[in-house]
Prior knowledge:
Layout lengths: L6 E13 L4 E3 L3 E2 L3 E12 L2 E9 L6 H4 L8 E2 L6 E3 L3 E8 L5 E10 L2 E11 L1
Antiparallel strand pairs: 1-10, 2-9, 3-9, 4-8, 4-10, 5-6, 5-7, 5-9
Amino acid sequence: MSGSRARLVSAQIFNNASMTGTSVNTSTEIDVSQAEIAAIELVWTGTPTGTFAIQAGVQVLGGGAAGGTGAGVTWTSVISPAPTAAGAGGSHLINLSDIGFSKLRVEYTNSSGTGTLNGYITVKGQ
């Protein structure tokens, strides 16, 4: 064991996002090109009903895999079945391992009810 520590980065990806009507909330995208594992925590209040999509992409334009922006990313859902909000406050914790993609984000589509969404991600890599 070399004694070096893996890089650990945490960020808030949703900050009091409104879950209302048929709104779609898309999180901040996170560069996970150097990550080995990630954990996403989604916490909401109220009575929303809807579906979360954990999305990733590898096709990044405008500077290469580590430096590009999401404008050229083809986002694909990587978790099935998708986590849901079922009409009451709640939370989901999603663990991802063996990450081979460059970017990660979460999209929430509300179908009814209202609520407030907060989300956090922690990535660990070299």
